[in-house]
Backbone:
């Protein structure tokens, strides 16, 4: 019975570490990604150019693109935080199971 609990704790701990690592990777790669920064900079240039040349359609589309980028960053951050919390909970559950064994 002790080896069963030990095996369960080891599996939960391993899955927790993998989940925690995936969450940190998502947070670092998505939120701090160079592609998103580049798109945001280019969109800001489009807005400035659209305002200078009084092209209202260009400004509206650029504003929509900025809103979409903001939503993308929020979603990626939410997924990353969820994975980090889930990983920590799995590691804690593995600890609790190991203490009871």
Residues:
């Amino acid at each position: 019975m002790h080896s069963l609990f030990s095996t369960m704790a080891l599996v939960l701990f391993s899955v927790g570490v993998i989940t925690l690592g995936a969450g940190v990777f998502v947070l670092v790669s998505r939120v701090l990604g160079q592609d998103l920064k580049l798109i945001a900079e280019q969109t800001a240039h489009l807005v400035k150019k659209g305002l200078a040349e009084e092209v209202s359609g260009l400004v509206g589309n650029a504003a929509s693109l900025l809103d979409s980028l903001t939503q993308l960053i929020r979603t990626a951050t939410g997924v990353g935080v969820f994975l980090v919390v889930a990983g920590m909970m799995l590691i804690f559950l593995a600890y609790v199971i190991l203490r009871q064994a």
Notes: The mean pLDDT is 80. Residues 70 and 83 are 20 Å apart (CA to CA). The radius of gyration is 22 Å. DSSP finds three helices and no strands in the chain.
